[in-house]
Amino acid sequence: MSNSRYAAQSCLVRSEARFRKDPKLYDAYSKFMQEYVQLDHMELIPKGQISRPGAYLPHHGVFPNEIRVVFNASHRSSGGLSLNDLLLPGPKLQADITVVLSNWRCFRFAGTTDVEKMFR
């Protein structure tokens, strides 16, 4: 994968313009990204290495109710490939929806749950 810094930087500039209009969004976004660092989901680049080529992942915040950061792994780098292009697809992990719905009808009670941070 070739250098993707320009795409990520362009996305950052658009996000910063949005943050200047609404500082509350900036505070929520900063807090969210700091949590990513604390969870070791990302790492900060040392200042001396910022200009080096590397794989950068463009992202932006979505603010329906609470903040959610969306990473764009399908954005093509300068070489024409995206991160998604380079990843091998794994096996299908989800059960067939018709089987799931049919099984729900077999029992008197059904339960659901909300798994925090499931898609991080």
Notes on the protein architecture:
With 120 residues, the chain is mainly α. It is built from four helices and two strands. Strands 1-2 form a two-stranded antiparallel sheet. Strand 1 and strand 2 form a beta hairpin. The protein is extended.
State the shape: extended
* Low-confidence runs of at least 5 consecutive residues: none
Main sheet attributes: strand count, strand direction, barrel closure: 2 strands, antiparallel
Per DSSP E runs of 2 or more residues, the count of β-strands stands at: 2
Biggest sheet strand order reads 1-2
Number of helices: 4
Give the terminus-to-terminus CA distance. 23 Å
Beta-strand content bin: 5-15%
The average pLDDT score comes to 83
Helix coverage percent: 25-40%
Helix/strand order, N-terminal first: HHEEHH
Determine the structural class based on helices, strands and strand pairing.
Answer: mainly alpha
Radius of gyration: 19 Å
Features:
single chain, 120 residues, two-stranded antiparallel sheet, extended
Question: What are the SSEs and their pairings?
Answer:
Blueprint lengths: L4 H17 L1 H16 L20 E4 L5 E4 L11 H4 L10 H8 L16
Antiparallel strand pairs: 1-2
Short synopsis of the structure:
The chain is mainly alpha-helical.
